[in-house]
């Protein structure tokens, strides 16, 4: 019988600090809370192992009866495609101007290691794989040459900093474009087919979430600005997005999550360049309006495609614009004090190699952004939890 491990190689051996425990899935926690099991489990902790076991059996039986998926039980792996928000180190292994495998990146990562994540610590895919789906706390980059088969079987990120739906965007940023990310996925499939057998590989692929986060560079750079207005360009981007979804479906993916555009006009770089300069630091309304327009088209297009696909396939749109904008407009409840500057350097335009300049902030937890584009670890965790809400996840995994 196939053994779908929920732990990565490092977690299985306890080699990585803080990763020995399987992360708790919020879907399972949410459902148990709703139906009264979570409190029962807590109160039974002092009554012995047998009582805990009985409560667990009751909870799992209930979930099976009502046919609502608990992510920790239903998801063997997590696969992510996209740009720098989800690049966990792939660009370390290509020739690209978009890199972050040097300090001060990774300052608060376990061991203080700069892994190629554009952050002081963990980023969105780590929280998606860990806190959201309960698979593993760190989602490795597919291009990491040290990966073992067990790492591959529980999922990887194919994301590349600088990528976009528009192939011209990626040409400018020297990233691995989405077409090549899908080619890497095909290669991945061949590897696990050979190692685990086609039946098990197909099961992993068909039951695991495939998440796409790939629009910020297109909307922020607007490389075709001279040729297309926002309406025409967002139409084009939605067409590209649907092509990616269809190709993933053709490769066996049956649970596909598509994340919309964030309010890219409010990142520090856009504020300085397009929002009135160093003094005003307003959000770029042009970029934000383009993001909203893109989302207003992508969401119904995804819903329409979902209805066209055969039974058993799920394509779900996830709104990231609202939770990010909420953090920017109301940061205090989460302990953030600075939302218009990044933590590294002056916080104005520093990104990638320009973060090598001295002057990184002391306490990153008070900053929403690490550099002039990317969120700090703390913010990434909050954004993941609010974007991938239990209701949408139940739809994706149903």
From TrEMBL:
The keyword Transmembrane applies. CDD domains: SGNH_plant_lipase_like. Pfam families: Lipase_GDSL. It comes from the Eukaryota. Gene3D superfamilies: SGNH hydrolase (3.40.50.1110). InterPro entries: GDSL, GDSL_lipolytic_enzyme, Lipase_GDSL_AS, SGNH_hydro_sf, SGNH_plant_lipase-like. Keywords: Membrane, Transmembrane, Transmembrane helix. The chain crosses the membrane at residues 52-81. One of its GO terms (molecular function) is lipase activity. The keyword Transmembrane helix applies. One of its GO terms (biological process) is lipid metabolic process. Belongs to the 'GDSL' lipolytic enzyme family. This is Uncharacterized protein.
């Amino acid at each position: 019988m196939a053994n779908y491990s929920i732990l990565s190689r490092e977690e299985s051996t306890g080699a990585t600090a803080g990763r020995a425990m399987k992360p708790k899935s919020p879907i399972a926690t949410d459902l148990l809370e709703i139906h009264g099991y979570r409190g029962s489990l807590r109160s039974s902790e002092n009554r012995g192992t047998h009582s805990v076991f009985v409560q667990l059996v009751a909870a799992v039986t209930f979930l099976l009866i009502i046919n609502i998926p608990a992510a920790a039980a239903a998801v063997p792996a997590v696969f992510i495609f996209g740009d720098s928000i989800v690049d966990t180190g792939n660009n370390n292994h290509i020739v690209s101007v978009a890199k972050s495998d040097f300090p001060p990146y990774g300052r608060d990562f376990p061991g203080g290691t700069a892994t190629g994540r554009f952050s002081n610590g963990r980023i969105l895919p780590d929280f998606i794989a860990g806190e959201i789906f309960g698979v593993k706390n760190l989602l490795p980059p597919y291009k990491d040459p040290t990966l073992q088969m067990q790492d591959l079987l529980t999922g990887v990120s194919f994301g590349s900093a600088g990528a976009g739906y528009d192939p011209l965007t990626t040409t400018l940023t020297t990233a691995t474009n989405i077409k090549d990310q899908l080619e890497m996925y095909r290669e991945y499939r061949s590897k696990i087919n050979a190692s685990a057998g086609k039946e098990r590989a197909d099961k992993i692929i068909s039951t695991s979430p495939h998440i796409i986060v790939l629009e910020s560079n297109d909307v922020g750079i607007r490389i075709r600005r001279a040729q297309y207005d926002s309406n025409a360009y967002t139409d084009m981007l939605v067409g590209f997005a649907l092509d990616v979804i269809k190709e993933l479906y053709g490769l066996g993916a049956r649970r596909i999550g598509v994340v919309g555009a964030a309010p890219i006009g409010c990142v520090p770089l856009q504020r300085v360049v397009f929002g009135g300069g160093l003094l005003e630091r307003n959000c770029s309304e042009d970029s934000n309006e383009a993001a909203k327009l893109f989302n207003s088209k992508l969401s119904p297009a995804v819903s329409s495609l979902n209805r066209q696909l055969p039974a058993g396939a799920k394509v779900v749109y996830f709104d990231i614009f609202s939770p990010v904008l909420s953090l920017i407009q109301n940061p205090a409840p989460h302990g953030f004090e600075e939302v218009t500057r990044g933590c590294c350097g002056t916080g104005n335009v520093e990104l990638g190699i320009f973060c090598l300049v001295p002057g990184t902030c002391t306490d990153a937890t008070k900053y929403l952004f690490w550099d002039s584009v990317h969120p700090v670890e703390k913010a990434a965790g909050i954004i993941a939890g609010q974007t991938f809400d239990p209701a949408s996840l139940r739809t994706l995994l149903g």
